[in-house]
Amino acid sequence: MAGALPDTSWTRMLTIELLALALSTGMVGAYYLYLRARVRRDPTYSIHAVNEAARRMWVEHVMANPSRDVMAVQTLRNFIMFGVLMVSTATLLVIGTLTLSGQPDTIARIWHASHLGPPSAELWSIKVMCLLADFLVTFFAFLMSIRLTNHVLFMINVPREAREGNEALAPDAVARRLNRAGTMVAVGIRSLLVAVPLVFWLFGPAFLVISTIGLLVVLFRLDRSQVII
């Protein structure tokens, strides 16, 4: 009987943690379903759709006016520099997260604020791995945005005569590539925002649910084209 208590406590803790994770994931999924439905009715509802249209019109304008090539290079350079900064930030976050995973027993006892049972080094490691995976998504998303923008940097300055007959260098194709780079930036920033509930999850399941609700409130405002924060 003495050995049954820890097993019961562990099972109870794991069940509550999984329920909190499922609830948080379900809320985020429901929000994106709502956002997708709103965008279907009104494409300009989302700031992402507005940004895509703006980038497409910008590329078409620049490629139709060769005198704008210097401005285009400066704009894309700033875009790349932002990606470089965020890749460096994501690298530091990955290193910091790996440091957290180095001493699971000690850190779990210090950080875990839940009173549902004794802190578990195994559960702590799972949470840290989820946080690490999120930061790796951030790293690769911004890295891909740099790669795609570097492609656009050369494509956008190709003379009109040279790109005639080449569909891959048409303004529409170049705009799609730049929009993919913009999508990668959006994914990277979204991953950083998702890291907030994952960090709070280290303190307990209740913090995960509460921080997820706070995140959805912020996303509701950030994703609307009518509201600027």
In short:
Helix content is 80%, strand content 0%.
Beta content comes to under 5%
The main pleated sheet reads as: none
Total helices: the number is 8
Which residue ranges are poorly predicted, with pLDDT under 50 across at least 5 consecutive positions?
Answer: 1-5, 113-118
Number of strands: 0
Termini separation comes to 57 Å
Using the CA coordinates, give the radius of gyration.
23 Å
How much is the average pLDDT? 85
Fraction in helix: over 70%
| H/E element order | HHHHHHHH
Rough outline: elongated
Counting helices, strands and paired strands, the structural category is mainly alpha
Strand-helix topology:
Blueprint lengths: L3 H38 L5 H18 L4 H32 L3 H8 L9 H35 L4 H4 L7 H31 L3 H18 L7
Describe this structure in words.
It contains eight helices and no strands. It is an all-alpha fold. The N and C termini lie far apart (57 Å). The protein has helices at residues 4-41, 47-64, 69-100, 104-111, 121-155, 160-163, 171-201, 205-222.
